[in-house]
TrEMBL record:
Gene3D superfamilies membership: NADH Oxidase
Tree of life domain: Bacteria
Protein name: NAD(P)H-dependent oxidoreductase
Cofactor: FMN
Family according to the record: Belongs to the nitroreductase family.
Entry's Gene Ontology cellular component terms: cytosol
Species per Swiss-Prot/TrEMBL record: Microbulbifer thermotolerans
A molecular-function term among this protein's GO annotations: oxidoreductase activity, acting on other nitrogenous compounds as donors, with NAD or NADP as acceptor
InterPro entries linked to this entry: NfsB-like, Nitroreductase, Nitroreductase-like, Nitroreductase/BluB
GO biological process entries: 2,4,6-trinitrotoluene catabolic process
Amino acid sequence: MSNTADVQQQIINAFNFRHACKVFDPQRKISADEFNTILEAARLSPSSFGFEPWQILVVQSPEKRELFRDFAWGANGATNGTAGQLGTASHFVIFLAHTDATMHHHSDYLQKHMREVKKLPEEVIGFINQAYEKFQTHDFGVEGKRQVADWSARQVYIALGNMMTAAALLGIDSCPIEGFEMAKTVEVLQEHFGIDPERYQPAVMVAFGYRAGEPPFAKTRRPMDQVVSWF
């Protein structure tokens, strides 16, 4: 079994390996077992109140992917003259964030989630309902379709980060993508995927696969003393 120092080095190596891969090798595919592990990293991720306010679409159909090409400028290769992540990724994922239709305090969805998924006793459900109502209406002021979707998207990014880290530990590349037109994405999801925009809003896309070449630039980050303050 690896000692702590070995695990620490594996983690740092994975983060140094990971970069925003713009073009993947279209001939190399992620195995079903490995991608299921990446999905499990998302499914098991933490979220505020444990409400899991996300849905995950895995878009493998080339025809379905092409529906986003004209307006997903961060994934269509327009910036580098390639087919982009849409055309080369082994797996292409769209995260949806729940809106207030499901995430409003005391919603039927949340009551069912607490009873059937979390399997909480009624007295605990009552306490969480009160705490979550206070959180939404007073503490954070998270009310309304857009605000709740934005709050849900913050939870989505926890799952997104865990997916990309799991992928990097497996030697698999990834690229998170916010470069898309929101309104047109909502339209395509509703018309071609049956997604109800009153319940779900697109939060972020992410592509997975194996890099076609090495990154053109070395990884750079601010030094630790410019990022972290100790008190």
